[in-house]
Amino acid sequence: MARFEPFGEHAVNASWVAVQELQKLGLGHDINLHVAEVPVEYQAVQSLLPSLWTQHLPQLVVHVGVSGMATTVTLEQCGHNQGYMRPDNCSFCPKSCCCLEGGPDCIHSVIDMDAVCKRVNSSGLGVSVSVSKDAGRYLCDYTYYTSLFLGEGRSAFVHVPPLGKPYSAEQLAQALRAVILEMLELMEHNKGKNHCLHDQ
């Protein structure tokens, strides 16, 4: 699991606080949870993510970021290759404005986020979950696309709202736990099935 450092108006990044709470909860005895902080920097993403995929050989990588516009826990269905014009925490922006020159415009997760959303919303958790197809064309989307490419679709991105708007860190952690367990269950159920991941 990877989450982002503070940036912009987010002096305290709700995603980090929620992931720390999730680390305390765990995902169960038979699931290894590795947590890493991802800098809000395009070049750091390009160097860090390949090493995380190589080092841990994960079944699934879940990225968690904060969105000031979110009021729900939002599951992102896909990552986008182009449109990155906003400078990062180091005032850097890719000259090409894209993640991977010549890469597909959009890569979808192998996980059906609508199915995950329905299952978690019907579980009585008390945290509202929604699905989005636009992770925002900033570091969240950039990271997600890169991870989807590296992991052949075995990645997910979850946007959480700022703390207290309306959920506590504990509620966000419970929601992340429920979401990730559903994702893993769906992946296990769909093992061996072919997926179309790339849109041109």
TrEMBL record:
- Is Ribonucleoprotein tagged as a keyword? no
A GO cellular component entry from the record: cytosol
Provide the active-site residues from the annotation: C140
List where in the cell it is found.
Cytoplasm
Q: Does the keyword Hydrolase apply?
A: yes
The cross-references to PROSITE patterns, in alphabetical order and at most eight, read:
PYRASE_CYS
Q: Name one GO biological process term.
A: proteolysis
Please name the top-level EC class of this enzyme: hydrolase
* E.C. designation(s): 3.4.19.3
Cross-referenced Gene3D superfamilies: Peptidase C15, pyroglutamyl peptidase I-like
Which keywords belong to this entry?
A: Cytoplasm, Hydrolase, Protease, Thiol protease
What Pfam family is a match, any one? Answer: Peptidase_C15
Among CDD domains, the record links this protein to:
Peptidase_C15
**Gene Ontology MF, one:** pyroglutamyl-peptidase activity
Major location, coarse class?
Answer: cytoplasm
Catalysed conversion reaction? Release of an N-terminal pyroglutamyl group from a polypeptide, the second amino acid generally not being Pro
**Assembly:** Monomer.
Q: Which family does it belong to?
A: Belongs to the peptidase C15 family.
**Record's function text:** Removes 5-oxoproline from various penultimate amino acid residues except L-proline.
Protein name from the UniProt record: Pyroglutamyl-peptidase I
Q: Organism, per UniProt?
A: Cyprinus carpio carpio
